[in-house]
Design goal:
alpha+beta; 45% helix; SMI1 / KNR4 family protein
């Protein structure tokens, strides 16, 4: 099933590790492709929808 702007996934973005690609390449000594992989690793899947996220939060409350 394709996703759209009206039906997005919910993700967590680790902004602490989110630098500009050129800075990652320089600081970490990575190639362009390695830097892109590193950048993608800063994004973690959380839920298929906002509703699913809210339901999981409600369920975890007890």
């Amino acid at each position: 099933m394709g996703r759209s702007e009206t039906d997005p996934f919910v993700v967590f973005w680790d902004h602490e590790g989110a630098w500009e690609k050129e800075a990652i390449m320089e600081e970490e000594g990575l190639t362009s492709e390695e830097a892109e992989v590193y950048m993608r690793e800063q994004v973690t899947y959380v839920a298929a929808s906002f509703t699913e996220l809210l339901e999981s939060l409600r369920d975890s409350e007890g």
